[in-house]
Amino acid sequence: MLRETATTTLLHKDNQQATTSQPTASTHSYTKTPPLPSHIAITPVTAAILPSFRRAISLILPIRYPNSFYTSILSESAASSLSRAAIWYDRFRASKRKREEDHVSSQRPGKDQLPGNSLEDGELVGAIRCRLEPVPTQPSPDGSPTTEHQLYIQALALLSPYRSHGIATHLLETVITEALRTHADVSGVYAHVWEANQEGLDWYKRRGFVVEEPVIQGYYRRLKPDGARIVRRGIGVRDWLRVKEEVGAAPDDDDMRTSRGVSG
């Protein structure tokens, strides 16, 4: 069961129109994210998980998303691929589950491990949903059209008792990796954060995001103050290295050029 008293330091609201600003190159450098403990799983959102996914976002974020925001995850491949849940499993049962996964892997070499796609013996503690947005670009020198996308974080939520385990970071990195795996033209990531949420702004800055000016007044109509700040960073070499680790192939030169020289 979700804990009713849970709060979070991350606060987002889905914007209705795409932002046309170009991704900001950050000079911030940070180390590789440590792996999650074995009893925590980052998993796609399935029909079995969706009610808890919806409840977590509704409980944590002061935004009321329409029903389609959630149901589209099951019906639209684009929404499904950029949505993830974090499940915290009972440690004892997680050890048993890990042994079962190892047994399956040994019996079927090369096959995927048992997916963490149900809440049996576990609790959904975090959620993320993103979308890709086109970025206006100039035609190439030969006049042919060019395409570019940025990843917008529509909702990122984590129950406060489960902070300090790297869960939110892994949720974000998993979606970034998936976006790059399917769209090599993704050039940046951005989100809106409540202007008074200093912890959330600091969280993003530690992960290479730049806080842009000015404050967008009237963005959070139910909150006081009601402004939002945009946090943004470009896609970096480390992002492409995670893609390489997942698919086992190095990104080509064109892919690396989309990193815009960002170190993180």
Walk me through what this model shows.
The protein contains eight helices and seven strands. With 264 residues, it is of the alpha+beta class. Helix 5 links the parallel strand 4 and strand 5. The two termini are 36 Å apart.
Topology summary:
Layout: E1 40-44, H1 50-60, H2 67-75, H3 77-81, E2 83-89, H4 91-107, E3 122-134, E4 149-158, H5 167-182, E5 186-194, H6 198-206, E6 210-211, E7 228-234, H7 237-247, H8 253-257
Parallel strand pairs: 4-5
Antiparallel strand pairs: 1-2, 2-3, 3-4, 5-7, 6-7
Helix pairs in contact: 5-7
Mean pLDDT: 80
What is the CA-based Rg, rounded? 19 Å
What best-fitting shape do the alpha-carbon axes yield?
Answer: globular
pLDDT under 50 segments (min length 5)? 1-9, 16-20, 25-30, 109-116, 255-264
Q: Sheet bearing the most strands, described? A: 7 strands, mixed
Strand content: 15-25%
Q: Estimate percent helicity.
A: 25-40%
Tally of alpha and pi helices:
8
Strand order of the largest sheet: 1-2-3-4-5-7-6
**Secondary-structure-derived class:** alpha+beta
* Terminal-residue CA separation: 36 Å
Number of strands: 7
Order of helix and strand elements from N to C terminus: EHHHEHEEHEHEEHH
